[in-house]
Amino acid sequence: MCDTCGCNVTHGNAHLLQPGGKLSRTEGGHDAVSVLRGLLHENDHAAGHNRHHFDQHGVLAVNLMSAPGAGKTCLLESTIAALGNELSMAVIEGDLETENDARRIRARGVEAIQITTGSACHLDAHMVHDALHHLDLAGLDVVFIENVGNLVCPASFDLGQHRNVVLLSVPEGDDKPAKYPVMFRAADLMLLSKCDLLPVLDDFKPEAARRHLRNLANPAPLFELSARSGAGMEHWLEWLRREIAAARQATVVPDDVRTATSVRPTP
Amino acid sequence: MHELSICQALINQVEAIASEQAAQSVAVIRLGIGPLSGVETQLLQQAYPIASAGSVAEGAELVIDNLPLQVSCEHCGRTTEVLPNRLVCAACGDWHTRLVSGDELLLTSIELVRDEQAIIEDVRTH
User: Fold this and answer.
1) What average pLDDT score do residues A185-208 get?
2) Which ipTM was obtained for this model?
3) Least CB-CB distance to B109: which of A35, A42, A179?
4) B102 torsion bin: left (phi>0), alpha (psi -120 to 50), beta (else)
5) Spacing of C-alpha B111 from chain mean position
6) What is the pLDDT of residues A65-96, one digit of tens each?
7) Looking at the structure, do residues B44 and B77 belong to the same domain, yes or no?
8) Are residues B88 and B27 in the same domain?
9) In chain A, which among 49-68 make CB contacts under 8 A with chain B?
10) Helix A41-56 vs helix B3-20: angle between axes, to the nearest 10 degrees?
């Protein structure tokens, strides 16, 4: 949705603007100013700039989100091991404290920028913008943005990514998409991680996780994998190759700063 | 607790509009929020006095309209009211639906208190 053509007037809020609606009258002698702008307008604007910056370089930006400890960094380590010779990657790491994750990535020979958010529970577009000042996108194929481990807040902030990948690890339980619908609705790809634990944690049913995802009307593909054992990694790597090829082919009109409204999937 | 960040973004927007309109203060801020916005309205109400302290919006009433959650079904074409974690068509049960309303996080309007004398003087000096 944008702020100019009125497309943010939805079926749900249009009645507010009708004659007699809450927004059409001036109460108590005050001047009512109709705004109808997203609360995260500033963030979305910055996200649009980030996305444009990625597009200019033909770089795919992937926002990795999950609960803490679902295996985002481990997935990146295995991805680097598998594709390090084939693709050029960089990682932006978001954590409340420590450079631990960035160190793990750098140990694999890949550039990593650590954002420490202090007490903030999510990354926003401005933080990613600042990180991009320290990253040369020329020659890169993909930038992974490893968001703060959290299934709630990161879902509300567009960072300028092209794709959202949400991990659900087997120990968390298969009903997480039903418990955190905003996050899982935003997923362009869902990865069931730590699937090597399925034989032990046999109450986790991948089919149930898939059903919960479909109940959110989300058609995203769902892959089962274990970054530790390597099982199922090929589906993820193939998806990644396809998305990178698509990002490279995407043509960029210089003045076309694309602004996505949010991290939510387009209908 | 990202509601505080969102509230700060809200105050920034309100301050910019109030300044544009040469407003003395803000009386009412009205938001439209859907159940799938990822924001808890109660937490937003709690964060609001903290975020607005010292700003032109300090003391303004924050009114939040909770917007309905509705999907339109690609299979049967009906529009139905649904729950946040069950966005399948309430009529036929198909999951191929499109969100009609419910993910809004919108500043719908603000009501400003303007000092008429100040506006007249402002016009004169320009």
Assistant:
1) 98
2) 0.84
3) A35
4) left
5) 13
6) 999 999 999 999 999 999 999 999 999 999 99
7) no
8) no
9) none
10) 100
Which residues of A are less than 8 Å from B105 in CB distance? Answer: 38-40, 156
Closest C-alpha among A118, A124, A105, A99 to residue A47: A124
In a domain, A137, yes or no: yes
CA distances from A184 to A95, A109, A162, B9, B90 (A): 21, 31, 16, 24, 20
* CB nearest B98 (choices: A122, A155, A267): A267
Query: What dihedral angle (degrees, nearest 10) is formed by the CA atoms of B93, B95, B96, B100?
Result: 80
Task: From chain B, pick out residues whose CB is under 8 angstroms from the CB of A31.
Answer: 21, 23, 111-112, 114
As a residue count, chain A comes to: 267
CA A129: distance to chain centroid? 15
Give dist(CA A43, CA A49) in Å, integer. 10
B7 and B28 housed in the same domain: yes
Tokens of A237: 């790597």
What's the mean pLDDT in A205-219? Answer: 98
Tokens linked to A96: 């409340």
**Is residue A235 classed exposed, middle or buried when 0-12, 13-18 and 19+ CB atoms within 10 A define those classes?**
middle
Return the CATH number at B61. Answer: 3.30.2320.50
A34 plus A112 within the same structural domain: no
Confidence of residue A32 (pLDDT cuts 50, 70, 90): confident
pLDDT in tens, B1-48: 688 889 999 999 999 999 998 899 999 999 999 999 999 999 999 999
